[in-house]
Amino acid sequence: MELRNIAIIAHVDHGKTTLVDELLKQSGTYRENQATTERAMDSNDLERERGITIFAKPTSVEWKGTRINIVDTPGHADFGGEVERILSMVDGVVLLVDAAEGPMPQTKFVTSKALALGLRPIVVLNKVDKPDAEPDRALDECFDLFSSLDANEDQLDFPHLYASGRSGWADAELDGPRKDLNALFDLVVRHVPPPRQLARKDEDFRMLATTLGSDPFVGRLLTGRVESGSLKVGATVQALSRIGQKIEQFRVTRIQAFRGLAQQDIDAAEAGDIVSIAGMSKATVADTICALAVDTPLDSQPIDPPTITVTFGINDSPLAGRDGKKVQSRVIRDRLMKEAESNVAIKISDTPGGEAFEVAGRGELQMGVLIENMRREGFELSISRPQVLFRDIDGVRHEPIEEVTIDVDDEYSGSVIEKITGPRKGDLAEMKQAGAGKTRIIAHVPSRGLIGYHGEFLTDTRGTGVLNRVFHEWAPFKGPIPGRRQGVLISMEKGVSVAYALWKLEDRGKFFIGAQEDVYTGMILGEHSRDNDLEINPLKGKQLTNVRASGTDEAVRLTTPVKMTLEQAIAYIDDDELVEVTPSSIRLRKRYLDPHERKRHSRAGQ
């Protein structure tokens, strides 16, 4: 049977996972009476809730005697560590572009990686049946994007199709029959070359591990593409590190291949196959699994370095230990080390005290997903404000700059430009009409300036703006950038909040909590209407007398409190504040809970 290995890449929400659903259906992967779910490849709970792909996952379909291995890749740059490894397993890419929006920043990020590896893309203009679709413009923008990314002549001469993933059709012409995805299947078989590894069938076995998984019955599973030779169950192989150091020697207990959405046990794997193998105890991502006679590891793709760091610590607030079962620093450290083993884009280091850990990664979304997974597993944590990592290049301090693409209604474009080019030290790169009364703004902004900006952006655009960001370059340090302008309301007592007290304090600012909630000294209850912090008493009840008169009993009506998501809370806090995360709560607090210690540290900071 012939073999093709492809990856599907796209910006967030351009319909990639929905298209894979249709490919699985139309290739006959499902039985006629088989129950199926939408976005079948988004198997993780968080992926389903957020509607984004976080983990790269392979699947396979059969088409006219050819097996097509398809890898669904994440569309967000924060999960780029997955993309960089996965692209080394495939021989071609299908670039899915929304016909209305055109290529977006995350598309540019993943496409640049694919082109650098010499992969020839197939462009699929998706959602062409939408009323605001402009497929010709989107196609021109794809060509311009490839050209700007230094694509070679073969890559610039790319085939394209018009499609609707949700309706399940793809055609070479815009006014085609719109019946099925046969044109896409045929184009993949025709355009994508067979694995070059097929020529190395007779060499010693070698495979580069690209993803790490686990199975409760099988144990650790390493997935990758067989680069040369063949492997049978029961064979003894070794694992080499990137520098050629021997890690372990082990017996292969199981080989699994991807068949539709399931993994199926097979007896042997040949060159070019994408498989998972079991039996190892130490080997991990980026290691080379090979025959005992091999002493040179395979080259692994370099992973872009982290750009931000967040401190994970134990939850030491007065309410610690009420919700979660995993609260010790040792347990937190073990969990973070396990994450770093399978996610090469994350780096973990201990802080001097040993009670907290520096976690470096790609962005706030990646950190938010890790923290959300940990709280669902029963962890309690305290999280610091994200800090940008700097680099010294030729003795000059450099910081990461991000390319920000903003689609906003024309009436709000002025305030957006003022915010990103003023205090946030951004440079406006491009501004153009995006149709339907919208303006597209492209700017290069320091990563420091974007921490905490998304909430402010949504307020400025009345919730109608769309902001996408991707790493652009390292640039010389641009000087101080002011943080949050408003102060916070801090509890001066421990107890249960009283509706009357909050009602009387509403003119001081907006609250993050409601009545009858546990509070403690140093906990942040809301945002002050001015730029200084204010200590308040949320426990103060109404003074009662035994005299009753009409008009003295006022009805207490509280304004609905602002409830922040995890990412919003992490981006909101200042350097002297923490987010307290438990399985059921997200609270904000001052780093120093004791008022005297807090004042002493604030004076030292000035």
Structure notes:
The chain has 606 residues and is an alpha+beta fold. The chain folds into four domains: 2-194, Rossmann fold, CATH 3.40.50.300; 198-290, Translation factors (Elongation Factor Tu (Ef-tu), domain 3, Beta Barrel); 391-476, 2-Layer Sandwich (Alpha-Beta Plaits); 488-605, OB fold (Dihydrolipoamide Acetyltransferase, E2P) (Beta Barrel), CATH 2.40.50.250. Helix content is 22%, strand content 32%. Strands 18, 19, 20, 21, 22, 28, 30, 32, 33, 34 and 35 form an eleven-stranded mixed β-sheet that branches. An eight-stranded antiparallel β-sheet has the order 12-11-17-8-9-16-13-14. A seven-stranded mixed β-sheet has the order 2-3-1-4-5-6-7, sandwiched between helices. Strand 11 and strand 12 (246-251) form a beta hairpin. The chain is globular, with a radius of gyration of 27 Å. The protein starts with a strand and ends with a helix.
